[in-house]
Fold these 4 entries.
Entry 1:
Amino acid sequence: MSRKPAEIAETICSQYNGKTGIPMAKVFLLAILAGAYVSFGGYLFIVVTSDAAAYVGYGLAGVIGGLVFSIGLILIVLGGGELFTGNGLFTISCLSGKARFVDMLKNWVTVYAGNLVGSLLLVVLVFAGGSYLANGGEVAVRVLQISSSKVGISFMDALIRGILCNWLVCLAVWLANSANDTTGKILAIIFPISAFVAMGFEHSVANMFFIPLGILVSGDPALVAGAGVSVGGLNLAGFVGNLIPVTIGNIIGGAVFVAAAYWYAYMRKQ
C-alpha cells in the first residue's frame, strides 16, 4: 500500500524534524556522500550523452541522460545521504512548528558545504583517473559543452531553471516517501529526475561537479579546440556566478512550490 498525499506530508514533516537531533559531523559526512553520489550520476550523464544524440536525437538523448542521472538520488534515498536540494522539504517541518527555522538554516549551510566537498572530491578523482578522455576525447568534449553552457546562462534564466529543477527534485523525494518498497521508491525517483534533466533545468549540487570538471578540462587546448565552444567563462567567477542564482532558485523551488504548498494543502490548521 502506498501512502496518500496527506500521509506523505506527515511522514516528511517527522523525518525533517528528526534531522534536528543529528550531530552536525554526521550530517556533514552524509552530505559529502550525497555530493559524490550526485556527481556519479552527473558523470554517467556526461558519458552517456557524449554520443547518444547521434543515434537517437536530441530529445531522446536528454531522456536517456536523465534516466542514468537518476542514480544519484536513488543512491541518496536508498543508501543514505544529505542533499541540499532535497532538504528544501525541511520547510514543511518548520511551518508545522515541529522544527525551528534556525535549525533548518544550520542544516542547509552544513549540507551545502558537504555537498560541495563531495562533488569536488569526484572532480579530482575523475580528472586524475583520466577517464574523461574516453571515446576519443568525446567525453571531454561533452564536459566542455555542458560546463561552458552553464556559465553562459544569465542570472534570471539560471534562477528560473533552478526553481523548476528543484520543484521536480523535491517532488521526486516526496513521491519516494509514498512507497514502502525499494522498487516503488526507485520508480518514484526516476521520472521526475529524468524530466528535469531532459528539460535542461539547473541543479546546484550537480553544477558543483560539472563546472569545476570543465574548468580543469579546459586547460587542454586540443580538447577545447575539438569542443568548439568558448571556455572564457570557465573560472571561479563563472562557477560562483552560476551557483548563486541556481541555489536561490533551488531553494524557492523546493521550499515554496513543494514544501510550503503541501503544508498549506494538508497540514495548515484550518
Entry 2:
Amino acid sequence: MIYLAVIGLEVHTELKTNTKIFCSCKNEFNLEPNINCCPVCVGMPGALPALNKKAVEYAIKAGLALNCEINTLTRWERKNYFYPDLPKAYQVSQAEAPVCLGGYMEIETQNGPKKIRINHIHLEEDAGKLIHSEYGGSLVDYNRGGVPLIEIVTEPDLSSADETLVFLENLRALLKYIGVSDCRMEQGSLRCDVNVSLRKEGEPLGIRTEMKNLASFKAVHRAITYEINRQTEILNSGGEIIQETRRWDDQKGRSYSMRAKEDAQDYRYFPETDLPPVKISSEFVRQVKETLPLLPKERAQKYVEEYNLPQYDAQILTSEITIADFFDECVALFDNPKMISNWIMTDVMRKIKEHQTEDIVLPINAKNFTKMLKLHQDNVINQPAAKTLFEHMWHQDSKTDPEQLIQKLNLVQISDEGELENILKEIIQNNPAAADDVRGGNKKAIAFFVGQVMKATKGKANPKTVNELIQKLL
C-alpha cells in the first residue's frame, strides 16, 4: 500500500537579544552553569517579570519576513507541566493570541515552487537545560531559562524529508538574514520538533507522532525517513498508529516512545496574571518593517535586473547576508558586477566550503578584494597571478594593499612584447616540430607554446600578448 507523508514543524528559535525575555539577566551562551540566573528566571515566589520590548520587535520582524499578519493585541498564558528544567512548573507562552498569525514561505522543490503555510508564531521563554550523564542521573543548568524564543508552527504542508530539509535551510538563512537569531543548532538556539503522519490518497490526515531530540538538519532528515518507514510497516501489517511523542537517537538511527502526545488541554493553559496584554500599534509595526533588510528573493531580483546576473548566481549571492553584503560593498567600489560575482561564486565560495562553520567569516575585505580584481582587469596581473594573490590575501595578509603585495610576491605580469618575443623565439627554435604543427593549423600546438612561455616566465606572461606573438611569428 502506498501512503502519503504529511509533515508539520514546530521550530523553536532563540532570539538574539542582549537580555532575557522577562528579566535583565544576559542572554549569553557557554557560561559556567547556573551563574546567569535571577529570582525571575528560576521562579522564586514574588519575583515579577518585565517584558523585553526587543523580543517583541524581533518576533514581529520574523513575522513580517514570513508574510504573517501581526496581531494588534497579544496575550500571555501559563503552559503548565512538570519537568526538572522548569522550576516554576509552568512556561510563560502564548496560546490564544500569538504575536503573528498566518504567513508562508515559498521553497523550491523537485516539482517546482511550493508554498509552505505558517499557522502562527508565538513568543515564549526557554526552559533550562538538562545534561544527561552516561553514568546515570541528570544535571540541570538554569542559565538558559528565560531566554526569549519564538516558536514557528507550520501547517502540515511538507510531504518528504527532502522538502523539510529545504524548508529548514531556507528558514534558518532567513532568520539569520534579518538578524533575529544566530540559529546555531549545536548551541540549541535553533531546535525543531517534527510531526509526521501518513494517509492514503484522498483520505483525511492520519494519526501523528511527534519527533524530538533532533540536534541537526541531518538528524531531522534521518528521523523523518525512519518514522515514515516505521508507520508504513505498522499500517501494512494491520496495526494502528498511536499519537505519541518519540525521542530520536541519532547514534542508533532509531526513535523510542517517550510519552503519549499531549493536547492543548493537557497543559491547562490559563492567563499569565503577572503580565498585561501587549497592544501592538500599526506605527510600531511600520518602524520594525523599516529595519528589515531587502530579503533574499527581492535582493536576487535586484541583482538580475540591475546587474544582469544569471538567476542562479543571484540566488547564491543572496543566500547568506554576509555574502550579499560583501557583494554590495564590492560593487560600490568597483563597477564590474559580473567579474565580482564570478570570483565570489568560484574562489570565495570554495574557501567558505573548505572552512565551513555556522557563521561565515570573510578574512578579506571588499576594498582590497576589488583592488585585486582591478589589477587583473587592467592586465597588471594575469589570471594565475590573481589566484595566487587571492590565496595569499585570504590565508596570510588581507590588510596590505594588493599593489604592494604583487611587488612583494613578484606577480607583476610581463606584457613587454620585446621580452616575450625573445623568449618565444628561443622556444620555437628548440621545438621545430611543434612550430610546424602551428603553421599547419594545429590549435593544440598553440597551447603548447603558450604553456612553455608561461613556464619560462613562472606564470607571469600576458597570455593575450603571447597568443598575438605566436600568430605573428608562426
Entry 3:
Amino acid sequence: MSPTNKNNPAAWVPDYIRGLVPYVPGKPIEELEREMGIKDSIKIASNENPLGPSPKAVAALKKALANLHRYPDGNGTFLKDELAKRLKVKPENIILGNGSNEILELLAATFMVPGDEGIMSEHSFVVYSLAVESRGYKKVVTKPTSCFGHDLEEMAAAITDRTRIIFIANPNNPTGTYVSKKEFERFLARVPDRVIVAMDEAYFEFVEKKDYPDALEYFKAGQKNIVVVRTFSKIYGLAGLRIGYGIADEEMTGFINRVRQPFNTNSLAQVGALAALSDKQHISRTLENNRTGMKFLEKEFQRLEIEFIPSVANFILFRSPADAGAVYQRLLARGVIVRPMGGYKLPQWLRVTIGTPPENKRFIQALEEVLDSFGN
C-alpha cells in the first residue's frame, strides 16, 4: 500500500521497489574485528578465492596504475578479443559486466517488459529476484529438488506465454548442486526459442563431474536463446575488481550494449582479468586447494554427524545441529565468518567456503567448540 503523505520520499517510490529486500553481503573482516574487538579472524563466507588474486593479475595492475587518469576502454576490446579466442566465439558474442550480476540485470533490463515473467528456483542466487522485481516484472519461483537445487521439470512446467527469462545457476549457489547433461537437454527440448535461458556458471571451473553440461557448447551448437554468464570473482580471485562476462547471440549483445553504461568495467578490472586468464599456475593451485579442502570438510562433517549437501563448487551448505543464528554469532565471536542462509529461506543452514588448510582446521575446531557450548 502506498504512503498517503505525498511529501514522504516513500510516496515517490513504486510499490514494487518499496517491497524489495536489499541484498545483504557477507561481513567484511575489518567490520567484524571492530564490532567484536578481536583480531586475526578468517572469512570463509563469500566463496572468495582463499589463495588470493592471481599473481599475474596483481603484477599487471601495478603497471596499469599510472594510467588511471584515462577513461577505460568502453568496449573492453583486448579482454573480449582474448576471451573470444579462448572460447572460440566472436568478440561480438561477448558482453562485459561490473561483476556477472550486472549481466543478469542487463538481461532483464534489455529484454523484459511489464507483464513479463522471470523463472527461478526457490533456493537460488538472490540477484535473479532483484533483477526481475526491481523493474516491476513478475518473478515465478519453482519448487527445488530434495537437495534444494534446480528441478528443471518444475521450471519447464512453469513456462507461460509471458515467460521471458529462466535463470539457472549451474552449479547452484548456495547449495553447490548441479544439473546433469541429461536433465539439461530434456529441459531445453521443452523451452520455446523465444525464452532466454540465462546459465549462471560462476563456479563452473570447479566442477569435475563428467555429466556436467557446459552451456557454452550448447550455445555454439546453435542454441541461440542460451546466454552463458561467468565471472572473474571466484577461481581467478578478482572479486574486488567486479568483472564478469556473458556469451550470447551477436544480435542480443548488440541490444544489451544499448542499455549498459558506457564505461561499466573499469581499466584495472579489464587489465587484471586479461592477465588472470593466462595464470595457469594460480588456477591449478586453486583447484587443488579446493579439492583437498572439500574432502577434508566432508570427512569432518561426517565425523561430527552434521548433515551437508554434497557440493561441486567451492563451498558447502550444512545444517546446523543447533540454532543456526546462534551458531553463526558464536563462530563470529571466535573470529570465524561463515554465511547464514536465512536470506535464501534456509534458516537452519549455514554455508562455508573452502579455505586454506589452516582456515579449514580452524573452522572445524571453532565449530566443535560452539556445538559443545550448546551441549551437542
Entry 4:
Amino acid sequence: MKKIRIICKENDNPRIDYYLSKATIHSRSNIAKLIASDFVKKNGVEIKKSSESVGYGDIISVDFSSLSGIKLNPTKMTLNIMYEDEDILVISKKSGIVVHYADSHTGDTLVDGIINQFPDIKNVGDPDRPGIVHRLDKETSGLIVIAKNNLSYKTLKQMFKDRKIKKEYIGIVTGSTPQKGRIDAPIGRHPLKKIKRAVIEGGKEALTSYEKLMENQGLTLLLIKIQTGRMHQIRVHLSSIGHPIYGDTLYSSSRNFKPDRLFLHASRINFEHPLQKKILDIKDEMPKCFRQTMNLNKIIF
C-alpha cells in the first residue's frame, strides 16, 4: 500500500490522525510522521497538523512510500511461544528485550526475531512494527500477542481499543500495600522529562487495580489488573501511591540497591480469538527470580 485515496464517511469531525489510524493499518505515530512530511492531503491541500479534523465527504489522499525506509533485521532468536495458530502468536518476552524499532533503539528487537522465524509477518501492520498490536515495555517480561495477518491485526487493534482484552500482571513493589486497591488517576507526559509519564490533571483516563499476594522483607508481591493501556501505566500508578515496582530506576527516587531487572511480568491474557471466536486464556508462570526474591518455594496461585 503506497498511495491511497479515501472519502470520509464520518459525521463527528474526528482528528485526521485518529481517523486514518482506524481506516488503515498504520499507527497514529506513523500518520503524524506522514503529516509532518507533507504526505497527507485533504481535498488537495496538504494537512499541516495531526489535530486537524475531517468531515463527511472530505477526500483524503495519503502517500505511504516514505514509511518503507526502515530496514528490518531478521535475527535468530529463541522465541518462547505460548500459543500459535494460523492467525496469531502469543509469545513470552524476556525482560530487557525491546519489542520493535524506535528512534531511541537501533539494536536487535523482538520483531527481528519474529520475522526471522515467521517471514510473512513483515507484511502485517505497520512496516516499522510488523504484527505488533499492543505495548510491553523493554524492562517488562511476559505475554505479548502478535498478529500473523492483516485481518487479525486490524481486529486485535480494535479489540484493544475497545478494552475487550483482559491482562493481568505479577509485580513486586517496595513497601507494604493495602490488601486491595484501585488507582483511578489520569496519565500524561511528564512536564519535565520526555521519556517519562506522570499522573497529571487533564491526562488520559487510566485505571489500575491490585491485590496483595504476600509480603517479605519490605517487598510486596501483587496481582495487578489494568482496565486501560497507557504507556508505563502500572509503573506510574504504583509509584504515585508510594510503592514503585522493585527495580524501576525510572519511577523510583530511591538510591538503595537496585536489582538487575524490573520486577513486572505480564502473566495472563484473556480474549476472544479475533477470527475463530473461541476464548483464549493464556497464562505464563512467575519468573524464577520473582520466587527467589520473595522466598517462595512454589507458585502460590
